[in-house]
Specification:
Blueprint (H helix, E strand, L loop, with lengths): L9 E4 L7 H13 L5 E4 L9 E2 L13 E5 L2 H12 L5 E7 L7 H8 L3 E4 L2 H4 L7 E2 L15 H7 L7 E6 L8 H11 L6 E6 L7 H13 L6 E4 L7 H6 L3 E4 L9 H7 L4 E4 L4 H4 L5 E4 L4 H12 L2 H18 L2 H16 L5
Parallel strand pairs: 1-2, 1-4, 2-3, 4-5, 5-6, 6-7, 8-9, 8-11, 9-10, 11-12, 12-13
Helix pairs in contact: 1-13, 6-11
């Protein structure tokens, strides 16, 4: 989808071909923001429905107006500086940081040369050396919503009726805590014959052995029928797999932001999560439980009471749904970023 360059006020670069969280953010936001402001993405690997400029056009952008360059990676900050300093393009440089650790000296040097900075959480903001605008990620609360008939959906997906079902979705690797979830399931399920655990996702290159080891432990324990490893599903199908859950578990050891708890909560599911990423700003006492990362015993102690309290799960699920709809809508994220773009276009710097 090629937009009219004369109407473009914001450029969102995506300088990574492989799918990543940043790419997914751009794909979600830019088409929505295109209804609010002239915006286009640039870079490889973007689907056809995203307004897009070819990379070569950046070097011959008309100098008729100032535009915002919204970088989300170091390479994109650097290219923004090259375009402004060497090619004299009229750009206001904006960087969004999701990192929750002290930046390298090189990254700090790049950030210092931006005209504005956004942080994806208050925790992320604490690691920046200049005050950012904090804008939390949002999701499509129409696409992610509770099931009209959860029992029927479970039957369609081949899941047991009458069971409490807990799930852990996403990349399968140590960083994501998949092994912690499996260890907890191995500890809790033998005494609870009416509980099923779902692990859904993909082990990318280098993590195949990790996944095989987890499957081996489950098989040895004789629980392969109740701790199920499911393949990654297309984006348009994932909401159904949240809708069938009674409890979602986000056991990450490290996370930049982390959308899966929000997606689960939007489907009316309470969450047990570790204190990483933005989870402390997402999960509240009435919507779930937070535990230290890497503490398997604490994770098990947090999950067990939820499995044994259906009424509590229902109340927390309703609270989770209300929280997401009031705080984590993608429309609000898009509008907040457009307000930042307009500040930069008006000449502000912070």
């Amino acid at each position: 989808m090629a937009p009219d360059i004369a109407k473009i006020e914001v450029i969102a670069p995506n300088l990574k071909r492989r799918l990543s969280g940043v790419t997914a953010t751009i794909v979600r936001l830019v088409p929505m923001q295109a209804g609010m402001i002239g915006i286009a993405a640039t870079g490889p690997g973007l689907p056809a429905h995203v307004p897009h400029l070819p990379l070569w056009r950046l070097f011959v952008l008309p100098r008729d107006r100032v535009r915002v360059w919204h970088a989300r990676r170091n390479t994109e900050m650097l290219l923004g500086l090259i375009l402004t300093r060497l090619f004299r393009r009229r750009l206001k440089l904006l960087f969004t940081s999701a990192s929750q650790r002290r930046h390298s000296g090189y990254t700090r040097w790049l950030i210092a040369r931006m005209d504005g900075v956004v942080a994806t959480s208050r925790k992320t903001a604490a690691y920046l050396e200049r005050p950012p605008v904090v804008i939390l990620h949002g999701i499509d609360t129409e696409g992610f919503s509770p099931a009209a008939d959860r029992a029927a959906l479970r039957r369609r997906l081949g899941l047991p009726e009458g069971h409490a079902i807990l799930g852990c979705y996403g990349r399968i690797r140590s960083q994501k805590g998949t092994d912690a979830f499996v260890e907890v399931a191995l500890a809790l399920l033998p005494g609870r014959p009416d509980v099923t655990a779902l692990v859904m996702g993909r082990a990318t290159e280098g993590h195949d052995g990790f996944l095989a080891g987890l499957k081996g432990k489950v098989s040895e324990a004789g629980l392969a029928d109740r701790i199920r490893f499911l393949p990654e599903v297309p984006v348009h199908e994932i909401a159904d797999w949240y809708r069938v859950l009674d409890l979602y578990v986000a056991p990450q050891r490290w996370e930049g932001f982390g959308l899966t708890p929000i997606e689960a909560m939007a489907c009316g599911v309470p969450v047990v999560a570790t204190r990483v990423g933005a989870f402390e700003e997402i999960v509240t006492g009435d919507t779930g439980t937070l535990v230290p990362p890497g503490d398997i015993h604490a994770l098990a102690d947090a999950i067990a009471p939820w499995l044994d309290a259906p009424a509590r799960r229902r109340a927390a699920g309703a609270a989770a749904l209300a929280r997401v709809r009031s705080t984590f809508r993608i429309e609000d994220e898009a509008a907040s970023l457009v307000a930042v773009y307009r500040r930069l276009l008006a000449g502000e710097r912070w």
